[in-house]
Amino acid sequence: MSDERIIRGVMASSGIAIGRAIRIFDPSNISYNFQVEVDDTAREVARFRESVEKCRKQLERMQGELRGSSIPESSYFVDAHLLILKDKLFVDRIVDKIQAEAINAEWAIQQVSGELYEAYDRLHDDYLRERRIDLEDIVRRMLHNLRSKSSSTVPALSYDAVLVGRSIPPSTLFELRSARVAGLVTETGSPLSHTSIVARSLGLPAVVGIHDLSGISSGDPMIVNGSRGFVICDPDPSTLKEYRQKTRQQRSTLRRSSGTAPCTTQDGVRISLGANINFCEEAQSAAANRMEFIGLYRTEFDFFREDGKPSEDDLTAQYSRVLQALRPAPVTFRTVDVGPDWKSGDGTGSSLASRGLRFSLENQDLFKLQLRALLRASRNGRMRILLPFVSTIDDLDAAIEIIAGVKRDLARHHHRYDRDVPVGVMIETPAAAQTCDLMAPRVDFFCLGTNDLIQYYLVIDRSDQSAAQLYTPFHPAILRCLHQVYTLLQYSGRPVTVCGEMAADAAAAAVLLGLGFTSLSVSLSAYPRMRETIAALNLGKLRELAGEIMKMDSPKNIEERVRSTIG
Amino acid sequence: MTEREVVVGHRLGLHARAAARVVQLASQYQSTIALFRNDHGKDVEADARSILGILFLAAAHGSTLTVRADGIDENDAVSTICEYLRG
Questions:
Q1: In Å, how far is B3's CA from the nearest CA of chain A?
Q2: Cβ-defined contact of B15 to A309 (cutoff 8 Å)
Q3: Which stretches of chain B sit within 8 Å of chain A by CB?
Q4: Domains of chain A (ranges plus CATH)?
Q5: Residues A449-464 pLDDT 10s
Q6: What counts of helices (H) and strands (E) characterise chain B?
Q7: Which member of A71, A105, A132, A186 lies 3.0 to 4.6 Å from A120 by CB, making a disulfide possible if both were Cys?
Q8: CATH of the domain at B32
Q9: Cβ(A432)–Cβ(A390) under 8 Å?
Q10: What is residue A125's predicted lDDT score, i.e. its pLDDT?
């Protein structure tokens, strides 16, 4: 009997990890509480103050390390922790409690933090409620400091571990970076939480927002698929073998692809292969693997990372770092693509009436702020600016006018920027696919976003599981659409890069190449695999294949035909 | 004592980072500084030097806060904090 279970969550850091679970326990379960003699309360207060001081030193050291790392902006979570250590709502109340009730420091910390957790839980704002992780982190650290002499708050690990917990504090993760941690999974958190950010910068696969992890115990074998957002508990030997193979392949192809040899098909045709990133920290690992170019940097996650309105200076610094890390590879920055409900992070909850460029045109202050930051950063490398979800020429003209205005304004204020930053359109609505030739004279390049295009062409909601099997890039309508876009832009002199998931599937990529596209951009984790796939394809054969499938009528038959041809 | 009302201009309201900034600003002054938010006729108060207190105010974007300072530099303190809260 198989015990294998798949649990779905939200992708927070890509890659695959295989290991055994280690549960990160709630510290309140493990400390020892007792009454003390009234005379001894002064000693307990002193112990408590000592542990506060020790925490402060540990956090200040961590802050220094973070500031010098590739994620200096993350040192901010430490700032919040240091302020909590000074907060009288926390510190003074614990001291009062020790004295008034004659209890040990541990017990007082738990009582006060318990009251504060309740205050967090009463908040109506999801984001604020989640900030209780800051307090949990401090409490865990303090209880540890009270208990032991060593300064590391985590045990040495003797095997590859997957950290499992309701939440895992970012500081724990950062301290564990040299230990044998392979990945992590949590119940709370989002791709934007600090733990996810630290996981990405350390290259640790992570899945967050899993509904219930209570069934997983320390020692259970598990696989974390951070690229797809699920974990496999107690995997079958065959699953384990398959994933071992995958990780081995990932490592060996990454090593091989670290050469700068261009990506070519079996019959020697040069194909441009780039990578997509969602977070600025991923620029480091893309650079380490010498990606040819970044075909798509989805900037909305980083844009809305900060509380409040993002700061132009911070964004400029962040974009500059991305460009510098990847130089001389070009990076395509897609301007913020979200709707009114941008808190959902992926824009799925947003109304179609106000998505992508439409949202930017309705919220011009945010659009201009981002454009200013982009242009100010532009001289640090090779930047391209991509406009998302364009559906009318009028919107495009309005956006181009705004870009020109921002440039004039920057020049007036003596800011230097690259005057020739290419501006492009993301073709992801049927309207853009039909009219890309009219857009071509106005822009410098195009990207083809197949995910949305397929969804809107076939009238499928991708978030609706019951319609999932209807979503196929092999539908004749999609093939015709792709063929049309290729033909309309063929002589325009405007390069086209295909950026959606479609480019990362071997069979679908074969169709794209057969239809004439020569530039693809795929997720970081799919990159090494796609290099190998392309090297094994024969473009001459794919052209013939494309001709044949254009005459076929059933998506299922088309897909089978393509898969059997490429083997 | 100096007191002034201000509408929170930060897009996400007084979230962790903004709260931390208020504490840092308030710590530069000698005066005691408090923030008040009127919640259904009841005033909720927070010490401007308490990050937890400010978070628990849960002041959303567009909500009105009263900033009150008492001390030798109360005027400066109120202006600086109001200016920051306006976003």
A1: 23
A2: no
A3: 9-13, 15-18, 20, 23-24, 47, 49-53, 55-56, 58, 60, 87
A4: 5-26+154-244 (3.50.30.10), 27-147 (1.10.274.10), 268-566 (3.20.20.60)
A5: 998 899 889 988 665 5
A6: 3, 4
A7: A132
A8: 3.30.1340.10
A9: yes
A10: 80
As for the ipTM of the complex, it is 0.91
3-state secondary structure of A169: coil
- 3-state SS of A296-330 is EEECHHHHCCCCCCCCHHHHHHHHHHHHHHHCCCE
Give chain B's domain count.
1
From B12's Cα to the closest Cα of chain A, the distance in A is 5
Q: In terms of CA atoms, which chain A residue is nearest residue B10?
A: A308
A123 vs B15: CB contact, 8 Å cut-off?
no
Q: Where are the beta strands (DSSP E) in A187-343?
A: 206-208, 221-225, 230-233, 272-277, 294-298, 330-334
- pLDDT tens digits along A202-222: 778 999 988 888 888 888 899
Domain that holds residue B63: 2-86
Q: How far is CA A130 from CA A12, A127, A194, in A?
A: 16, 5, 11
Catalytic amino acids of A?
194, 499
Which residues of A make CB contacts under 8 Å with B? 76, 79-80, 83-84, 86-90, 116, 119-120, 123-125, 127-128, 131, 134-135, 306-309
Kindly report the nearest CA distance between residue A348 and chain B, in angstroms.
20
Which segments within A389-490 are labelled E, that is strand?
Answer: 423-427, 445-448
Give me chain A's average pLDDT, please. Answer: 85
| CA–CA distance, A55 with A33 (Å, rounded to integer) | 21
DSSP calls for A343-389 = GGSSSTTS-GGG-HHHHHHHSHHHHHHHHHHHHHHGGGSEEEEEE-S
Which of B11, B16, B52 has its CB closest to that of A87?
B52
Amino acid identity at A447: C
Residues in chain A: 567
φ, ψ (nearest 5 deg) of residue A17: -125, 140
Band (pLDDT 50/70/90 cuts) for residue A178 is low
Residue-wise pLDDT tens digits, B2-12? 999 999 988 77
